[in-house]
Amino acid sequence: MMVRKGGFEPPRLSAPPPQDGVSASSTTSALEPRACELNPQGQLLPASRLSDPEVRYLYTRPIALVQDRASGDSGGRAIALLPQRKRMSVRDHLRITAAALRHWAIAQAQDSLAVGLLWLIGLWIIRVPWAPLWAFLAAVLQIVPHIGPVLGLLGPVLAAALHSRDWEHPLYVLILYAVIVVIDGFFLQPYIMRRVARVPMWASILAPLALGFIIPFWGVLLAPPLLAVAYAYKARRGESKAQ
Questions:
Q1: Half-sphere exposure of 86 toward its Cβ, with a 13 Å CA cutoff?
Q2: Helix 201-214 / helix 218-242 crossing angle, nearest 10 deg
Q3: pLDDT class for 218, splitting at 50, 70, 90?
Q4: Neighbours of 38 (CB within 10 A)
Q5: Is 4 or 161 the better-scoring residue by pLDDT?
Q6: C-alpha to C-alpha distance for 110 and 192, rounded to whole angstroms
Q7: Would the pLDDT of 29 be above 60?
Q8: CB 65 within 8 A of CB 31
Q9: E strands of 27-129, at which residues?
Q10: Is there a contact between 44 and 82 (Cβ–Cβ < 8 Å)?
Q11: For residue 53, is pLDDT > 70?
Q12: Is residue 130 classed exposed, middle or buried when 0-12, 13-18 and 19+ CB atoms within 10 A define those classes?
């Protein structure tokens, strides 16, 4: 008899032609699907939780066979459609990681362009000679943490000191550098990472600080791509649960 529990009803199969010594009625009753016990969430209970000890479910395929332990016959007493989680393959892992790193590279390029634009505007206001050159170098060196911004600072400071021959213009360049570092570290880069790589702003701010404390230099360098990959897997997990 078919027993419907939790809204789950296995499909019936048509009976095969009767064999010698076996009646058609006994074959049909053997092929009749048994009921699946479900929990309140609609998930299939494990074999140890089933009320019928002679029935176990094979989860190796999306279509599971109900096997009778007493007879040892695995020819398929009944077939029921069972839910099964799809495992990610190596190709899926590579695809997710590559997409996350691509998004991080795009975010890094946008951040470098924004920093170069800030340098160009600030040096133009201070009237430092060769401002486009120093802005371009600052944008390129922005990729290297700690050392890159400092190297991008040397050129404008020396140019301002040689051109103005006073201490005010180099001081203005140092103030401009500090303002750009604060804007980029606490606002610009976290915003771009959130928009492009879907990384929260708090994570973009705290993760480089924490990893930089644990692993100096390398922690700050590896924090943004690691965050992009981690939140890409988190987004994939959320999509799998939604499905």
A1: 10
A2: 140
A3: confident
A4: 14
A5: 161
A6: 8
A7: no
A8: no
A9: 55-57, 63-68, 73-81
A10: yes
A11: no
A12: middle
Q: What size, in residues, is the chain? A: 243
Whether the per-residue pLDDT at 72 is higher than 60: the answer is no
CB 64 within 8 A of CB 58: yes
By CB atoms closer than 10 A (0-12, 13-18, 19+), residue 28 is: middle
Asked whether 137 and 112 are in contact (CB, 8 A), the reply is no
Residue 174: Cβ within 10 Å count: 14
Once rounded to an integer, what is the mean pLDDT over residues 167-174? Answer: 93
The contacts of residue 110 (CB under 8 Å, 6+ apart) are 192, 196
Does pLDDT of 28 surpass 70? no
- In whole angstroms, how large is the CA radius of gyration of the chain? 33
**What is the C-alpha separation between 98 and 3, in angstroms, rounded?**
48
The CA distance from 231 to 190, in Å, is 14
Please give the Cα distance from 137 to 151 (Å, whole number).
Answer: 9
pLDDT at 44 (0 to 100): 52
